[in-house]
């Protein structure tokens, strides 16, 4: 099917629409109960994959379920549709699979957030290309009703292209921010809300006009304008979002990619794509909502690109007035850690940047050999993507049964001898509970102040977290600041423990 589209895409839209070659999928195949059953089995595998990926302990099994479901869907589609060249499609699959395999083998776990954003962009771009292919050669997709594309098919096509374009350009900006190629600070354009709403209204209007207009000459300017504006609004929606909201952005873009795939599934008449896209889209949306609640963020404000955000937020991360604090050394920390009975470690993005997870695991092993109980506390939005800290700790072979979510471990800080904070900031800031004027007020945070001793590793006292507010934990009587690169400091603590 794809090889029939490519040569035709070089011709004019009018010539394509007039082409008698209506090599659509076999109608008998699409109505066959065996095809429906195969797609249903693939859908069940995708559901099992999502269930498996909900926990690090079952994530490998979840991945295998997802791979099996995709294999069933691809084989079923190829077998039941008229395809000009299976060899060419096989070569394309092999090339894509090889590239994915090499990237997965070589990518550092600390770079996983930007890799996820990059892959989301490819899903969005694929949706745009499929939508345009369907527009340029509707006969190959079975979309013609008489001499024109049906109105319903145009709506599906327009939505798929629009959502795909938004996913692509938004994911590119997310990738640039997460990889450090672009500042993580919000970029707030003047009248951005008016621009965003106006652009969105124009996209909706163009989609409606595209659905009601017939003839390739009349519809071509509409679909071009729709595509360009969709690319633009994806860019405009993500640049106002700061680094602190990146976990929600990654989850949100994942949801967008799912809805783009579902829209293209309707265009192609492919049940498996509809099921898969709906699963990814709905699960991503639910996760984004849960994460927004965990960050005390409005879901609407995040998906609207910082709608209602204070322009002063763009200056987040500026240094605040210095107050007296205690600074310690690796030797001090090592001495008190080995005297402790219970230590709770709170990792954050600083640990990921320093790639300190392996040194942290080594420190944990030494402490446990000395009879110290060590647990890890993970905040829902720690890092730059959902589950970022869980992935890093799993890479360092930290046992799953030692890793706890906020609601499961927060009550244990009062029994802990040491709260060991490495690269985290806003997720331990008590202002979230005490200061109603704080931008993080209402966000659940760890009660590290209840621990007998707090060690706080950060590079310097010259900056604050992404929320742009100072942290009273720095100045508590039981807090000792360990100012250094996270990996270097933990390695020095390990030497001192040895």
Topology:
Elements: H1 2-8, H2 13-17, H3 27-30, H4 33-52, H5 59-80, H6 86-106, H7 112-136, H8 138-141, E1 144-145, E2 148-149, H9 151-178, H10 192-212, H11 216-238, H12 246-268, H13 271-294, H14 299-303, H15 330-339, E3 342-347, H16 349-354, H17 357-369, E4 373-378, H18 388-395, E5 403-405, H19 406-409, E6 418-422, H20 431-434, E7 453-458, E8 479-483, H21 486-497
Parallel strand pairs: 3-4, 3-6, 4-5, 6-7, 7-8
Antiparallel strand pairs: 1-2
Structure notes:
- This protein is an alpha/beta fold.
- Helix 7 (112-136) runs parallel beside helix 12 and helix 9 runs parallel beside helix 11 (216-238).
- The model is unreliable at 1-30 and 307-319 (pLDDT under 50).
- The protein contains 21 helices and 8 strands.
- Strands 5-4-3-6-7-8 form a 6-stranded parallel beta sheet. It has a two-stranded antiparallel sheet with strand order 1-2.
- Strand 4, helix 18 (388-395) and strand 5 (403-405) form a beta-alpha-beta unit.
- The protein has 2 domains: 112-303, no CATH class; 330-497, TPP-binding domain (Rossmann fold).
- The N and C termini lie far apart (64 Å).
Question: Which strand order does the major sheet show?
Answer: 5-4-3-6-7-8
Radius of gyration: 26 Å
| Biggest pleated sheet | 6 strands, parallel
Kindly state the percentage of residues in helix. Answer: 55-70%
Strand percentage: 5-15%
Summarize the helix and strand pattern as letters.
HHHHHHHHEEHHHHHHHEHHEHEHEHEEH
What's the N-to-C terminus distance?
Answer: 64 Å
Number of DSSP strand runs = 8
Low-confidence stretches: 1-30, 307-319
